[in-house]
């Protein structure tokens, strides 16, 4: 039964991919891509052979793709197809997701900064709040977060990476309650982000530095634990306030899955 369900799912994805490609092909005019638009055309938009020609594919192969046949294109061929069809970033991601391929373009691109509108809202949040990028660098935070995270978000610091702070800075051991348990959990959460950006040189450098600089990180990294970044109780031993406890909430801004808005609401 499970095999049948998997087969049905694969077929549904192939058919959805074919319909998606046909719809994108239909919205392009021949003139947009340098073809003669004169004469009678039986279908709107580009012909299959025109798309295939521009992508460097055989017409038969591309036709099978639109028909939902059980064939596979390389990631680079899908990338050419996305360019020819003039797909937006969201449409390109959708194409690769349907095809079950990793986009070779995504990891190599520099991730854009957090939107200014997102950073601007942080001071209005009345509890510690900060924004992390895909490398877990803090891109913005409010005063409450700066006061709580002594050693990480202090004024004048140039290193704002949360992982480097937790695993390489002795201040983290004093600040974070039950440090080793939390550190292992954070690493397992980070691994889910790592795999999405595994080809990013900056990601590889970060992991290499952490493996080389932290015995705990090296041991836990080899364990290959993976968990989602979930909320829950968080404790800190603040040098002035003593033991304080929060409930963590994490959000991904719409259209920016590479960013995380983290809020720590005080527990009674």
From TrEMBL:
SMART domains: HTH_XRE. Residues 20-92 form the HTH cro/C1-type domain. It comes from Labrys wisconsinensis. It holds the Pfam family MLTR_LBD. InterPro entries: Cro/C1-type_HTH, Lambda_DNA-bd_dom_sf, MLTR_LBD. This is Transcriptional regulator with XRE-family HTH domain. It comes from the Bacteria.
């Amino acid at each position: 039964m499970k095999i049948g369900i998997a087969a049905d799912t694969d077929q549904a994805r192939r058919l959805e991919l074919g319909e998606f490609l046909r719809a994108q092909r239909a919205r392009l005019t021949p003139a947009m891509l340098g073809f003669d638009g004169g004469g009678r055309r039986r279908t709107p938009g580009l012909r299959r052979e025109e798309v295939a020609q521009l992508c460097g594919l055989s017409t038969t192969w591309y036709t099978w793709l639109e028909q939902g046949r059980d064939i596979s294109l390389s990631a680079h061929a899908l990338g050419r197809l996305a360019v020819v069809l003039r797909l937006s970033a969201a449409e390109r991601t959708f194409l690769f997701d349907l095809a079950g391929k990793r986009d070779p373009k995504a990891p190599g691109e520099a991730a854009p900064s957090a939107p200014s509108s997102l950073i601007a809202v942080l001071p209005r949040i009345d509890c510690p709040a900060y924004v992390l990028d895909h490398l877990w660098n803090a891109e913005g935070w409010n005063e409450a977060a700066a006061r709580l995270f002594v050693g990480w978000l202090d004024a004048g610091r140039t290193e704002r990476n949360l992982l480097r702070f937790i695993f390489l800075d002795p201040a983290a051991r004093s600040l974070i309650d039950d440090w080793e348990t939390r550190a292992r959990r954070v690493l397992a959460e980070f691994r889910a982000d790592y795999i999405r950006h595994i080809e990013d040189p900056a990601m590889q450098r970060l992991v290499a530095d952490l493996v080389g600089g932290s015995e705990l990180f090296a041991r836990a990294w080899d364990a290959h634990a993976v968990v989602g970044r979930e909320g829950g109780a968080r404790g800190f031993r603040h040098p002035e306030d003593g033991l304080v406890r929060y409930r963590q909430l994490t959000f991904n801004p719409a259209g920016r899955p590479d960013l995380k808005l983290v809020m720590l609401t005080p527990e009674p």
